[in-house]
Amino acid sequence: MQSSNLYTFQKPVGGKRKYLKSTIAIAALSVVGAVGIDLFLNPNALTIIFGSSSTGSTTNANGTKSATGDPVDYRYGTVQLKVTKTAGKVTAVDLIQSGATAGREQAFPMLVDAAIKANGSNFGNVSGATFTTDAFKQAFDSAVAKLG
Question: What fold does the segment set 55-147 form as a domain?
Answer without folding.
Answer: Sufe protein. Chain: A (3.90.1010)
